[in-house]
Amino acid sequence: MNEDIVQNILESRIEDKEITKCETCDKYFAYIPQKRFCDNCIKERRSSDYKKYYQKNKDRVLANKKKHYYENQEAQIERKRKYREANRDKIKKSNRKHYLKIKENKK
Ligand SMILES: [Zn+2]
Fold first, then answer.
1. What's the predicted TM-score (pTM) here?
2. Ligand 1 center to residue 24 CA distance, Å?
3. What average pLDDT does the chain have?
4. Separation CA 82–CA 88 (nearest Å)
């Protein structure tokens, strides 16, 4: 009974976009657009555990990536183009830095 009430409150809060349920561990966290995992899971995914997760779910991960890429291809190209235009000097500088670093390592 009590659990049902809690569940209902949680669900209505999810619908109101106040909170989100983590897709991996089912914990709830404050709603942020596009965020599907809690901080802990994000940390875990970024750490070496992600390698394990990737090995185990390689096909799914790659399929999702591909799907996401094709669904957002034009938007991504446009975004990258805008970024390059707005940060031309910064990119040049960072490329130069990278180049010098490689050169330095070769000596
Ligand atoms: Zn989580």
1. 0.40
2. 5
3. 87
4. 10
